[in-house]
Each structure stands twice: as C-alpha cells, then as structure tokens.
Amino acid sequence: MKYARAPGSLTGAMNRLCRWGALLLLAGWLPVQAAERLEVVTTTGMLTDAVREVGGDQVSVRGMMGSGVDPHSYRQTRSDIVAMTRADLVIWHGLYLEAQMEHFLERLARRQTVVAVAESLPRERLLAHEDYDDKFDPHVWMDPELWAEVVLHVRDALIQARPSSEQAFRDNAVAYRRDLEALSAYARRVAATVPVESRILLTAHDAFGYFGRAYDVEVVGIQGISTESETGLRRVRDMVDLLVEREVGAVFVETSVSDRNIRALVEGAGSRGHEVRVAGELYSDAMGEPGNYEGTYIGMIDHNLTTIVRALGGEAPARGMQGRLSAREGASDSSE
Ligand code: ZN
Description:
Elements (H helix, E strand, L loop, with lengths): L1 H34 L2 E5 L2 H11 L3 E5 L14 H9 L2 E4 L9 H7 L5 E3 L27 H18 L4 H26 L8 E6 L3 H7 L2 E6 L9 H13 L4 E5 L5 H12 L5 E6 L14 H15 L25
Parallel strand pairs: 1-2, 1-3, 3-4, 5-6, 7-8
The protein binds zinc ion (ZN).
C-alpha cells in the first residue's frame, strides 16, 4: 500500500508543481518583459525626449520635470529619489542647470550610474555664465546643432549601460540627428528673413544666448541665466529704456517662468508712450504638453523659432517647419 501510494503522490506533486510553475510563469511574464528594457530616469523634458528617440523600444524612461517646470529651482521629490535609486541609468544635464539637485546627483553617482551629458561638450563651444566665472550658460538645447552633440553623449551613456543594444542606439541616433539637422537648416533659413534692425529678443530670463549666437539675434533677459536671481526695479527701468530707445515692438513670456517682469516692462514702456506687445509664449527650459508636437524637442524649437521670427518681422510658415504646430493666437496668419 505504501509503495502503491508513492507513485500517485509523486504524480500529484508533479502536477501541483506544473500548475504552480505555469501560474508563476504567467504572473512573471509581464515583469520579465518590462525588465528587459533599460530603465532610465532623466531630469529635463529635452533629455527625456532624447532618451526616447535614441533608446527606442530598448528603454523605458521616466522624466522628472514635466511641461512648465523650471529646472533651475526644481528639487527631487520622494518618488524621484525612489525611481533614481532603482534605475539602471540616471541622465541629467549638468552645467549647473539643475542647481538644486546637483548635490544629490553627485552623491548618487557614488553608487549609481549617473551621467551629466552636457558636461562633456567642448568648453570652446559654450557661452560664459554671466554670474559665475567658473561656470557656463547651460541652455545649450537652444541651438539644435549643439543639442545634436548632446544627443551623442546620451547615445554613449545608453551604450555603456546596455552594450548589447549598441547597434540599435547607434542607428536611432543617426536617424534622430538627421531630423535635428533638418531643424537646424529650417532655423537658419527662416531666421535669416528677420530684418537686421529688429533682431532683438527680449525674454523673461536669459535662456536664449545660444539661440542668439546661432541665428545672429541680440538676446536680453530681464532675469539672468538662472531664474533664481532677483530682478531689481533698476533692471526693469533699464529694460524699459532699451525698449523705448531701440523701438522694440515685441517681447516674449516663457512657459516655465512667471510673466510678472515682462508685464511690468510692457506697462513701463506704455507709460512712456511706447507700445510693446507680448508676442507669444516661448518654451525656454521646458517643453510643451506631452502628446503634443510642442511636447517634443523638435516641436518646442520649431514653435520658438516660428513665434520669434514672425513676431520680429521675418517670414516663417504659421504652422512651422512641418505644418504641425497647433493653431493658436500669434501663430495664425491673420493675427498680426
Ligand atoms: Zn533657464
């Protein structure tokens, strides 16, 4: 009896094991698939987009800063910290852009793969930081040619973290850089149509230095390179003088910065009999809403360019480089 029962019980155990195995396999299937993707956490939206483009279906990316978020003042949240410590790779910008996160990221780098991709740009291609002798202007995404260099560093960081996907990352980077080249060519073409005497771009903070250098436009920010600096009344008065003397007709607000100073300027100029209009909203340090064309890097730059060029008297299609910009006030043909 004892002997006779044994095979039965063994079969039963085997069956149970198989059932459990099948269940475990089923339950485990999704996490296993997800785990095959390289988990990347990024700071700015522009970097999130670059990782998405270069990483393709090999990566899953979590961006910490959404649309309208100011990277100069952003601090990591509790859930950011959890995500960063669990990720395979953390990519941040560097050049003192994420000023409030820098200490945290440097400490994290001791035990985690953390790469500041803009830090690898050659120093001779960077603009000086007006507030610090030993720092540079971090807003390099404003020149698509410079951003295409950063994309290479994003690619290399991904390859380092996942060498087996090297070919895919290289192919994706080549394709994306081709799109960036097209953007750059469009930018040069439309920027050249702005009359020389109107080439002055006045914005809330100094985010457009590289834009100005690339397209020969003088840029003036009410606030400095970081939004953390205070703006005195004196600065606003000087800016009003500039608007009146140079007969500047258009100024711009930014999606990630308060428009208080810009409104003060417009009022100040108005009280001296010089009418200035707010010619649109620019994406300085954050992209548009996710899911929109403006929520991609290329859409963001296309929007800025198109808005600026048209407001300063140049010629650009109302819906931008690819006809994909949303129709809105200031972007429609009939508005100005
Ligand atoms: Zn900025």
